[in-house]
Amino acid sequence: MPSVSNIEHKGTIETIKDNKITVRFTALSACASCHARSYCSASEMEDKIVEVNNSSGEFSTGESVNINLALNQGFKALLIGYVYPFLVVFVALVILSVAGVKELFAGLLSLSLLVPYYLVVAYLKKDINKKFQFTIQKILP
Fold it and tell me: Using CA atoms, how far apart are residues 134 and 47, in angstroms rounded to an integer?
């Protein structure tokens, strides 16, 4: 049962190399269990792969496990992926509109700022990944 302080997903170990365990899990959107999901574009199921540092040696390939991420780290990911880019676009749009730039150009310029934002995020990917520490747990029978 998932803890309130953790985000938990059930996954399968794909590879174990050195002290890194690669786990594949299916991330479900909140409405993926809805009976009308086949008619709605909002529902999504997506396979994700994460690497977990673990030197215990108690896991094997193909084993079902739980992957956990602290809730506050999930919020950090939400900020980096959605909130900060929204703020970049919104603030740029307001500043450009106040400066008298035509709406079309203000909108296009605001949206174009997402390119450098995500390039910086991609450049800092290794540093960002260090801040997100997944833990792995065996699923008890």
Answer: 16
- Around 110, how many Cα atoms within 13 Å sit in the side-chain half-sphere? 20
Q: Kindly give the confidence (pLDDT) of every residue in the chain, 141 residues in length, as a single tens digit, with 9 standing for 90 and above.
A: 455 677 788 888 888 888 888 888 877 655 555 555 555 544 456 777 888 877 677 888 888 888 887 777 778 888 999 999 999 999 999 999 999 999 999 999 999 999 999 999 999 988 887 787 888 888 876
Note whether 101 and 109 are within 8 A (CB). yes
Cα gap 59→54, rounded to integer Å = 9
Buried b (16+ CB within 10 A) or exposed e, 27-41: eeeeeeeeeebeeee
Q: Which residues contact residue 90 at a Cβ distance below 8 angstroms, ignoring those fewer than 6 apart?
A: 110
